[in-house]
C-alpha cells in the first residue's frame, strides 16, 4: 500500500499522504505565512550576532596572546 511515485523516492502510506495533503492545504490558507515567504523581512539579529561573535573571537585571541606572553616571563 505504499506509493513510490514521490519525486524524492520516499515511500508514504496512504494515511501519511492524506495527512501531508491536509497540512499543505492549511499552510496554503495562511495568508500571513504566504506574505512572509514572498517578502522576508530584514534580519537585524544577524549583523548583531556577527558583531558579537567577532568581538568574542578578538577577546579570546588577545587573552591567548597575553597568557602566552605572561607564561614566557
Please specify the SSE layout and strand pairing.
Elements: H1 14-29, H2 31-38, H3 44-72
Radius of gyration: 26 Å
Helix segment tally: 3
How much of the sequence lies in strands comes to under 5%
Along the chain, the helix and strand elements come as HHH
Q: Uncertain regions: pLDDT < 50 for 5+ in a row?
A: none
Assembly state here?
single chain
Distance between the termini: 75 Å
Q: How would you state the average pLDDT, rounded? A: 86
Can you give keywords for this protein?
73 residues; mainly alpha; 3 helices
Structure write-up:
- There is one protein chain.
- The termini are far apart.
- It contains three helices and no strands.
- It is elongated.
- It is mainly α.
- The model has no long low-confidence stretch (mean pLDDT 86).
Short characterization:
The chain is mostly helical and 73 residues long. It contains three helices and no strands. It is 73% helix and 0% strand.
Amino acid at each position: 500500500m505504499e506509493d513510490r511515485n514521490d519525486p524524492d523516492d520516499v515511500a508514504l502510506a496512504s494515511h501519511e499522504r492524506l495527512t501531508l495533503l491536509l497540512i499543505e492545504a492549511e499552510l496554503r490558507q495562511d495568508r500571513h505565512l504566504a506574505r512572509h515567504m514572498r517578502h522576508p523581512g530584514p534580519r537585524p539579529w544577524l549583523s548583531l550576532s556577527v558583531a558579537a561573535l567577532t568581538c568574542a573571537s578578538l577577546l579570546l585571541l588577545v587573552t591567548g596572546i597575553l597568557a602566552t606572553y605572561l607564561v614566557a616571563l
